[in-house]
Write a structure and sequence with these properties.
Heat Shock Protein 90, globular, 3 helices, 26% helix, alpha+beta
Length: 184
Amino acid sequence: MQPGANSEDLPHHWSDEGLLHLRLPRRGAAGRIVGDVELHLPPDVQYVGLARLVVCAAARQAGMNGERVEDLRIAVSEATTNAVVAHRRVGQVSPVVLRFGATDNGGFEVTVVDTGPGFHPLPPEAMNGRDWAIEGGLGVTIIRGLTDDVRFVRDEGMRVSMSFAMDLGADGGEERNGRHLGGA
């Protein structure tokens, strides 16, 4: 037998170690598999790539097209990085939690939850007078621009819920946060 051929020989992170929790999906009204996956990640930037990879794979499996997966990838990176930074800023060691999956209405939703100090996001119009030479602070603006809907809820930390359509629509564009993007 080759080393590692037995699953007990392989290094792993099981749900009892607090890294990955899965809920079984169900079939939605349109026959699509609908359900949430819950991913618990240590508050370390090295896990942001894992979050991106897992969420994007689930979105592709649910039927999201390539352009939307790219939007999703960037938004998940920004939200997860913000959550990790919030935890690190106050020395919080509890995991950053991502919940994601296809929705009954044919979309895809991702929620990133942290237990950091939270923040009050500025309204989009507050970016009009921004000094663009200053780095940082663009994550919320990027997330707003890439999602179809985003909600920021501050309670015992921050919860960022992002909604995505599965594709950009027949004309190559779509309405996002009240603005028409691309297409005819």
